[in-house]
Write a structure and sequence with these properties.
The complex is a heterodimer. Chain A is mostly beta strands. In chain A, the strands form two sheets. In chain A, strands 2, 4, 5, 9, 10 and 11 form a six-stranded mixed beta sheet that branches. A five-stranded antiparallel beta sheet of chain A has the order 1-3-8-7-6, with no helix packed on it. Chain A starts with a strand and ends with a strand. By secondary structure, chain B is an all-beta fold. In chain B, strands 2, 4, 5, 6, 9, 10 and 11 form a seven-stranded mixed beta sheet that branches. In chain B, strands 1-3-8-7 form a four-stranded antiparallel beta sheet, with no helix packed on it. Classes of the chains: A mainly beta, B mainly beta. The interface between A and B is medium-sized, with 28 and 29 residues.
Chain lengths: 115, 116
C-alpha cells in the first residue's frame, strides 16, 4: 500500500520559471515531510523538510507547502535552473514506538529544466 | 567531513548465493537505516539500527539481516538471493531522537546488486 504518492512521473519547465512538484499522502500520523533530489548513480540528497505542525518552509529557491487537511504537499523551485534537472522524491517520516523512524517514499518525479 | 560511504559500488551474484553490503555513516551520526530501491520505484525501508540493535524493520523477509558495529558502521546481509533482489541498496545515517533534526536521513551513493 503506497502511503506516499507522486502522481506526475515527469515535469518539464523553462529555465527561470517556477517548478511545482506535488505529493499526496494517506497516513495522518506522519510527523515530518522531506524532499530529496537524486542524480543518476548517486544517492538521494536531502533538500528541505517541513514539520507537520507548519504549513510552509522556505530555503533559498526552494519552498515546501503543506496542506494537512488535503494530505498534500508541494515543492516550489523559483527560479528553476538547468542544474535542478534530477529526480525528486517526496518522503514522509513516521516515528515508531521504539524511537526508530523510517521514511516512506513516493515514486519520484523527473524534473527537466530546459535552458 | 565525510558523508555516508558504501561498498562495494556494484556487485553481481548468482541466485541462491549470499551477499554482504557495507556502510559507514556520516561523521557524528549514530543511526543507520537500509533501503532497497527497485528500478522506477522510490526507496523502501528495510530496517534501522541504533546502539547495535535493530530498532525497526520494514516488510522484508528474514533473508535480510543486518548488524551495527560499535563504531556505528553497518552491514546488510542477504541470504538465498532471488532474481527479485536485484536493486540499488541505499544506506542512510541520522541522529537518533531527541537530537534536533533527528528525522533527516542522509544517504550514501548505494550499492547496485544484480542477481543472475
Amino acid at each position: 500500500d503506497q502511503q506516499v504518492k507522486q502522481n506526475s512521473p515527469s515535469l518539464s519547465v523553462q529555465e527561470g520559471r517556477i517548478s511545482i512538484l506535488n505529493c499526496d499522502y494517506t497516513n495522518s500520523m506522519f510527523d515530518y515531510f522531506l524532499w530529496y533530489k537524486k542524480y543518476p548513480a548517486e544517492g538521494p540528497t536531502f533538500l528541505i523538510s517541513i514539520s507537520s505542525i507548519k504549513d510552509k518552509n522556505e530555503d533559498g529557491r526552494f519552498t515546501v507547502f503543506l496542506n494537512k487537511s488535503a494530505k498534500h504537499l508541494s515543492l516550489h523551485i523559483v527560479p528553476s535552473q538547468p542544474g535542478d534537472s534530477a529526480v525528486y522524491f517526496c518522503a514522509a517520516s513516521a516515528i515508531h514506538q521504539t524511537g526508530a523512524n523510517n521514511l516512506f517514499f513516493g515514486t519520484g518525479t523527473r524534473l527537466t529544466v530546459i535552458p | 567531513d565525510a558523508g555516508v560511504t558504501q561498498s562495494p559500488t556494484h556487485l553481481i551474484k548468482t541466485r541462491g548465493q549470499q551477499v554482504t553490503l557495507r556502510c559507514s555513516p556520516k561523521s557524528g551520526h549514530d543511526t543507520v537505516s537500509w533501503y532497497q530501491q527497485a528500478l522506477g520505484q522510490g526507496p523502501q525501508f528495510i530496517f534501522q539500527y541504533y546502539e547495535e540493535e535493530e530498532r525497526q524493520r520494514g516488510n522484508f523477509p528474514d533473508r535480510f539481516s543486518g548488524h551495527q558495529f560499535p563504531n556505528y558502521s553497518s552491514e546488510l546481509n542477504v541470504n538465498a538471493l532471488l532474481l527479485g533482489d536485484s536493486a540499488l541498496y541505499l544506506c542512510a545515517s541520522s541522529l537518533g531522537p531527541p537530537q534536533s533534526d533527528w528525522y533527516e536521513q542522509y544517504f550514501g551513493p548505494g550499492t547496485r546488486l544484480t542477481v543472475t
